[in-house]
């Protein structure tokens, strides 16, 4: 008899997700307030690299509603390749990788600009028992995700918001008809990005979903 899928109730998965959530609850607000205060005196807005350094201790996990949605999508779509921009401490990666494990199929390739965050994500994935389904590439996502082993079935955008559109444009050649793009933190997204995925003729069908603080779900046509 085949064992039932472990799901999100797997004790190892649940424990690591809870640990990340408690870390975020304890320190994310303080880290982000300090980061904003530091950057406020700069003559120019911080670059992605500078922002990564300022926010290196912030977990910034996806809302559990968004994480559960990712798990549901992966279980349903049975993707061969999931790609993630903005791994951070690995919470969203864990939700997707748990579904890949339960599907017994596919892999997720994530990207994280800050090496320290990538190391923490690796540790979290290993302790959740999901590292066999994952790969985290360290560096600028526009470079690290430019070479992929196949077409993208599901894309999660959850990194530096000003890079959503540049990253998406790098990845567009790897999108197939039917690829889904989940873009988190809708209120923070630049209008250039939302205009791109909502404008007729650009190859997407897109709508807002009331999950977490808002998600843009886009279908590649």
TrEMBL record:
Ion transport found in the keyword field: no
Domain of life: Bacteria
Enzyme Commission number, as recorded: 2.1.1.-
Alphabetized InterPro entries for the sequence: SAM-dependent_MTases_sf, SAM_O-MeTrfase
GO terms for biological process, alphabetical: methylation
GO MF terms held by the record: O-methyltransferase activity
Keyword annotations: Methyltransferase, S-adenosyl-L-methionine, Transferase
Entry-linked Pfam families: Methyltransf_24
Top enzyme category: transferase
The name this protein goes by in its record: Class I SAM-dependent methyltransferase
Organism: Streptomyces auratus AGR0001
Organism classification: Bacteria, Bacillati, Actinomycetota, Actinomycetes, Kitasatosporales
């Amino acid at each position: 008899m085949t064992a039932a899928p472990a799901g999100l109730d797997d004790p190892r998965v649940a424990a690591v997700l809870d640990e990340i959530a408690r870390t975020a609850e304890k320190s994310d607000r303080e880290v982000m307030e300090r980061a904003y205060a530091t950057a406020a005196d700069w003559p120019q807005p911080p670059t992605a690299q500078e922002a990564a350094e300022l926010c290196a201790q912030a977990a910034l996990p996806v809302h559990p509603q968004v994480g559960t949605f990712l798990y549901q999508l992966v279980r349903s779509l049975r993707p061969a390749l999931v790609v993630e921009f903005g791994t951070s401490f690995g919470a969203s990666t864990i939700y997707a990788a748990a579904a890949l494990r339960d599907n017994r199929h596919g892999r997720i390739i994530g990207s994280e600009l800050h090496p320290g965050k990538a190391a923490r994500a690796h540790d979290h994935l290993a302790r959740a028992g999901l590292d066999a389904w994952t790969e985290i590439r360290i560096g600028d996502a526009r470079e690290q995700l430019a070479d992929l082993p196949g077409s993208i079935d599901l894309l999660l955008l959850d990194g530096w918001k000003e890079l959503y559109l540049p990253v998406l444009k790098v990845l567009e050649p790897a999108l197939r008809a039917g690829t889904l793009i989940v873009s988190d933190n809708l209120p923070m997204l630049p209008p250039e990005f939302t205009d791109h995925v909502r404008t007729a003729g650009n190859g997407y069908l897109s709508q807002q979903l009331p999950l977490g603080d808002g998600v843009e779900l886009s279908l590649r046509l």
